[in-house]
Design brief:
Elements: H1 28-45, H2 71-91, H3 98-121, H4 137-154, H5 157-177, H6 194-203, H7 223-244, H8 248-273, H9 286-309, H10 317-324, H11 326-342, E1 344-346, E2 355-357, H12 358-366, H13 373-397
Antiparallel strand pairs: 1-2
Length: 404
């Protein structure tokens, strides 16, 4: 997507104002949305004490949703929204090298998948290979990106819309009509749903081993509707890119209004259909896709309106820094959290083992003694995000950005 432009146009001394912000080299609203999503992802993944965490910072136990359940679909939406900006200029060349684009997409997806495996298996000496998990967050992002990018390269907007309907409708029908041995058809419980049954049959022990089970929340069948989350982002990205190449002052507000109204419609539609198929993040239910895609459209439209159209962006600086190094933030914070859990510290507080994790030691010595339970748990998570902001700020100051 290129480098980030400054608040000034390339012409010396010319200030970019009003809707002219929308025509800059980089869509900052999308960067801020990405960065805010990554920061929230780190926040909700790193509670100081999971037994004392506010409900909005936890996933819904099964059916239903919390703000935390918006994070992952928002990121898939952002992955899709970035595709037209990354591949569009190359695809529109007089003689586009589609084979080179295919290689680039496949290579990026493969790197993301392998990076996901490296993250969930870290540290490798502790992995029990007979039941090592195969799928995960980055693996799902890789598969979804691959599918959405190929859809962009080979399908027109109408074809992508039909693909979205087919994926959601087919998944809905399969989950409701195909019987699971011992449970029958249409069972959406953790034990009896088709998606988790497929995971158990194909992946065997190589699945998520914590509740809800016995399947994988990033498993095989539920990845199909997850592709639609990225296709919804692709829809938004294509419209925003088109608006930036025409009459910016006129098209930008009109396009953002259109995206916001579309987002409101689909958010309400997802909620309205929930009685027929509950909103469920673990199953990546069709209503979950519809609702979260609508919410993502609303957030993206608002961010672009504030930042790219009106230039109100001073508040967004921290999120921009997270957005520029999203992969470093996610992988680095995951590795750091794992290390804090694995490193043991001697403690007389644990008579059975004589040691606790470094995370528990730091939390019990620096946060628990001075703050109430739930506040302390949140403060730990917030401090973890702040430390990673400092790391990313240093990298940003030095111009170091990892882009796969």
């Amino acid at each position: 997507m290129g480098t980030v432009a400054s608040d000034r146009d390339s012409a010396p001394g010319r200030i970019v104002t009003s809707a002219q912000h929308f025509g800059r080299a980089r869509l900052r609203g999308l960067d801020v949305f990405r960065g805010a999503t990554i920061a929230l992802m780190i926040l909700v993944n790193n509670a100081g004490d999971w037994g004392r965490t506010w409900r909005p910072l936890l996933h819904a136990p099964w059916h239903g949703w919390t703000p935390t359940d918006l994070v992952f679909p928002f990121f898939l939406f952002i992955v899709g929204a970035a595709i037209p900006f990354a591949l569009g200029p190359k695809l529109e060349l007089p003689n586009p090298d589609t084979r080179a684009l295919h290689r680039k997409v496949v290579k990026r997806a493969a790197v993301l998948f392998l990076l996901g495996l490296a993250l969930i298996w870290f540290p490798y000496s502790t992995v029990v290979w007979e039941r090592a998990r195969i799928f995960g967050v980055l693996q799902r992002i890789a598969i979804v990106y691959l599918a959405a990018a190929f859809a962009y390269l080979h399908l027109k907007p109408r074809g992508r819309a039909l693909l979205s309907i087919a994926l959601l409708g087919g998944y809905w029908a399969a989950m409701k009509l195909i019987p699971v041995p011992g449970f029958g058809a249409g069972d959406l419980s953790p034990e009896g749903n088709l998606a988790f049954h497929v995971d158990h049959l194909i992946l065997g022990p190589h699945i998520w081993r914590y509740s809800p089970g016995p399947g994988d929340p990033e498993g095989i069948l539920s990845t199909l509707p997850a592709i639609v989350s990225a296709l919804a982002g692709l829809f938004a990205g294509e419209h925003l890119r088109r608006a930036r190449t025409t009459n910016v002052a006129r098209e930008a507000p009109r396009m953002l209004t259109y995206l916001a109204l579309t987002g409101a419609f689909f958010s309400l539609l997802g909620l309205a259909l929930a009685p027929l198929f509950p909103i469920n993040k673990n199953l990546w239910s069709p209503t979950y896709v519809i609702f979260t895609s609508g919410a993502a459209l609303l957030v993206l439209a608002a961010a672009c309106f504030l930042i790219d159209v009106n230039g109100v962006e001073r508040w967004s600086r921290p999120f921009t820094i997270f957005g520029r190094n999203a992969i470093v933030a996610y992988v680095g914070s995951g590795v750091a959290a794992r290390i804090l859990t694995l490193v043991k510290v001697d403690s007389s507080a644990t008579a059975d083992t004589g040691s606790i994790s470094l995370q528990e030691w730091l939390y019990s010595h620096l946060f628990e003694p001075v703050l109430p339970d739930y506040v302390a748990s949140f403060a730990w998570a917030f401090a973890f995000v702040a430390v990673w902001f400092l790391i990313l700020w240093i990298l940003d100051r030095r111009g170091l950005h990892l882009r796969l």
